[in-house]
Amino acid sequence: MSTITGIxxxxxxxxxxxxxxxxxLAATVAVVGAPFYFAPFQVFQLTMVLVYAVALAGLNLLVxxxxxxxxxxxxxxxxxxxxxxxxxxxxxxxxxATLPVAAAGCFLLGLGFGVPALRLRGLYLALVTLSxxxxxxxxxxxxxxxxxxxxxxxVDKPQPPAWSxxxxxxxxxxxxxxVTAFALLVARNLLRSRVGRALLAVRDxxxxxxxxxxxxxxxxxxxxxxxxxxxxxxxxxxxWVIGFVSPDSFSFVLSITxxxxxxxxxxxxxxxxxxxxxxxxxxxxxxxxxxxAAPGVVxxxxxxxxxxxxxxxxxxLAGRIGSAAARRLPRTRTPDGTHxxxxxxxxxxxxxxxxxxxEAEVQAQAEPVGAPPRTEEE
Length: 378
What we know:
disordered C terminus
């Protein structure tokens, strides 16, 4: 019987891997083929979803895994966007050269801004980060010789090479897709490293993490630095895609919208940034179509509705749907004629041929070791 059970478990694991591979292949085909199927404006929207996904991946490091609240993420986004725009407009550099400079500059900016995080937490930290998001657009307007002031800067978009045969929107899509895939891979590997485990320990219990040897000051500051770096990369991609930057495009509303998108997508989730980015991109347009007079009210009501249906975010809702579907799987018949139920949450399979009923298991667990057998009177 144990041999049959082992064979069944191996077959189930093999089937699970095959199913995951097929899903990944289908997703890859859909992502690669999207710019050839949709209209240019729809391709632009998909490209912006990828841009926001990079920004939310960085915010997820800070909020979802680091446990720190930030309402100033839009400021790092703006810093990366203006770094790329100034380099393209004032210094006439190549587009690819702006990406590492924006990433490094925002990493250093986040490193310096992470110092207040050492002594502040909760609402106080959120207020300080919000002040940064409010202050930066005003500063950009004052630096008119470099930033163009209130008029902003207009720059050229990356042009597709002749050998590619792609339109401009398609080339931008694949360019941003490559950077987004690399950024998400870096975020995934970072969370699985010692840094990611240290961030989780700090988030769950600071005192216990410090006793275990985690340097709180270092990892809190690094959380802001990594988060700022991802936001800077997203801002650089934003400049590539839009071709125009202005201070009014990066108000504090952007920071609040990014945080709302992360919460709706799912905190501390691998796919939460992607789902949250789609929410940030498409839901405001839906709110505008539903009510041109008060789109903000509709947007807020939609957020409340989503959080009521999915308290753990859209990523958590997808997991709940998958678990419910697994619980409804029909029973299968084993070679010896017994029936196997669906897999239990612990990964084992419950069979109808179990020789020990649940009551007997409970009674056997309650019996002390070495106790004499009970009689019928007992």
